[in-house]
Amino acid sequence: MADTQSAPAPVAVDGPAFPRFSGAEVWVQLTQEEKAQIGAVAIELVASWRLRQRVYEDQLSDIVGRAAEAAQVLLTRMLAMEVSEALPDGALEAEDGITPRVPSLLGGICRDCGCTQEDACPGGCGWAGKDQCTACAAENAPAAGRLEL
Ligand SMILES: [Zn+2]
Ligand SMILES: [Zn+2]
């Protein structure tokens, strides 16, 4: 079979607009050792945030603050490294091997503007559909008779 060079590039936009990355799916496939390493680092990272918070709120000494900051920098780097090493090859890309996956815990993402639960449109928006926000739905709607402002 010969390749047809004139074939248009496939534009796959059906279903959810963004392929998702599920941390839970990856987690169950990790070894006990990987889980233990990632878990320990993640817990210590949160502990370092809490420590920095205590330093700020209780005005603890700069000495503790300095150590807390160093811990946070180190543990952030360690977490990224431990997770990167444990991730199966290609886990962060969709089936095509190119399209990046978006973390699933973020929830819905508007296909037209990228707004999310964490980052609504100016003035606020909700969900008009599975992957489109009310602001974009209103903007894209045909300007038929019932436009009221
Ligand atoms: Zn939108
Ligand atoms: Zn929106």
Structural class: mainly alpha
DSSP strand (E) fraction? 5-15%
Radius of gyration (Å)? 22 Å
Element order, helices and strands? EHHHEEEH
**Which segments are poorly predicted (pLDDT under 50) over 5 or more consecutive residues?**
1-15, 145-149
Give the overall pLDDT as a whole number.
87
Query: What small molecules does this complex bind?
Result: zinc ion
Number of DSSP strand runs: 4
Helix count equals 4
**End-to-end C-alpha gap:** 57 Å
Summarize the main sheet. 2 strands, parallel
User: What is the overall silhouette?
Assistant: flat
Search tags:
binds zinc ion, two-stranded parallel ribbon, 149 residues, 4 helices, 2 domains, two-stranded antiparallel ribbon, disordered N terminus, flat, mainly alpha
Short description:
With 149 residues, the chain is mostly helical.
Would you write up a description of this structure?
By secondary structure, the protein is mainly alpha-helical. It has four helices and four strands. The chain has helices at 23-27, 32-57, 62-86, 134-140; strands at 20-21, 102-103, 127-129, 132-133. Strands 1-2 form a two-stranded parallel ribbon. A two-stranded antiparallel ribbon has the order 3-4. Helix 2 (32-57) runs antiparallel to helix 3. Residues 110, 113, 115, 120-121, 125, 133, 135 line the site of one zinc ion (ZN). One zinc ion binds next to loops.
